[in-house]
């Protein structure tokens, strides 16, 4: 699979085949990709908690807010929830600010997941305080991002943004997830 195909398949999947597990060795392999990815100042301040146990998955799921652009959709139903999570935290003993480590790491994880036939979604909408509590984290660690993972159970298509400029994603009557994307011409300000 070339890079373009990998990126095209790397969508924000929010519905999964919940009962198809993601083995711990796969989660470790995905974190290894994050480990070797770029890191600002090479501080490697991102640390990872790996979870594929249904009981703990349910706790993590309960803290997440899904699809903010679709306020009428409550998130994945039972049976379509992630079968694993990698929670990325910042190590405050290494750095006091975390501008992008977690996003770079999360992207590396998702690209690796897609290559292995899985998919996922980066979720940053949760209470850090509650996440710290259920993960039993000390004050040393700041929860930054939950990477929801599993076998995708939805079709996602890319649409061109219409004249109205609306980029909100949506489900059609068949449950297909539509994601509007701006054209290349709309994004390139100029060539110098």
Written account of the structure:
Helices cover 28% and strands 21% of the residues. It is of the alpha+beta class. The chain has a four-stranded antiparallel beta sheet, sandwiched between helices. The radius of gyration is 17 Å and the shape is globular.
Tally the helices: 6
Could you state the order of secondary-structure elements as H and E?
Answer: HHEHEHEHEEEEH
Number of domains: 2
Give the C-alpha Rg: 17 Å
Strand order of the largest sheet: 1-2-4-3
**CATH fold-level label of the largest domain:** NADH Oxidase
Task: Tell me how many strands there are.
Answer: 7
Report the portion of residues in β strands. 15-25%
How far apart lie the N and C ends? 32 Å
Global structural class: alpha+beta
> Major sheet: size, sense and barrel closure?
4 strands, antiparallel
Task: Indicate the mean pLDDT.
Answer: 96
Task: Tell me what the CATH architecture of the largest domain is.
Answer: 3-Layer(aba) Sandwich
Shape field: globular
Question: CATH superfamily of the largest domain, called what?
Answer: NADH Oxidase
Low-confidence stretches: none
- Give the proportion of residues in helices: 25-40%
Instruction: Name the CATH class of the largest domain.
Output: Alpha Beta
């Amino acid at each position: 699979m070339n890079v373009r195909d990998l990126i095209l398949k790397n969508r924000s999947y929010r519905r999964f085949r919940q009962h198809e597990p993601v083995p711990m060795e796969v989660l470790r392999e995905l974190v290894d990709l994050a480990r070797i990815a770029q890191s600002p100042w090479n501080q490697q301040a991102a640390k990872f908690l790996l979870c594929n146990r249904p009981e703990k998955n349910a706790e993590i799921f309960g803290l997440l807010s899904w699809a903010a652009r679709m306020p009428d959709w409550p998130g994945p139903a039972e049976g379509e929830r992630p079968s694993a999570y990698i929670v990325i935290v910042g190590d405050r003993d290494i750095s006091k600010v975390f501008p992008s480590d977690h996003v770079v790491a999360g992207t590396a994880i998702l690209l690796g997941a897609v290559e292995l036939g899985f998919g996922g979604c980066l979720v940053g909408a949760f209470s850090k305080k509650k996440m710290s509590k259920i993960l039993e984290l000390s004050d040393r660690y700041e929860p930054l991002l939950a990477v929801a993972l599993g076998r995708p159970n939805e079709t996602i298509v890319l649409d061109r943004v219409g004249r109205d400029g609306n980029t909100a994603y949506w489900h059609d009557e068949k449950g297909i997830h539509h994601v509007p994307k701006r054209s290349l011409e709309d994004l390139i300000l100029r060539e110098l």
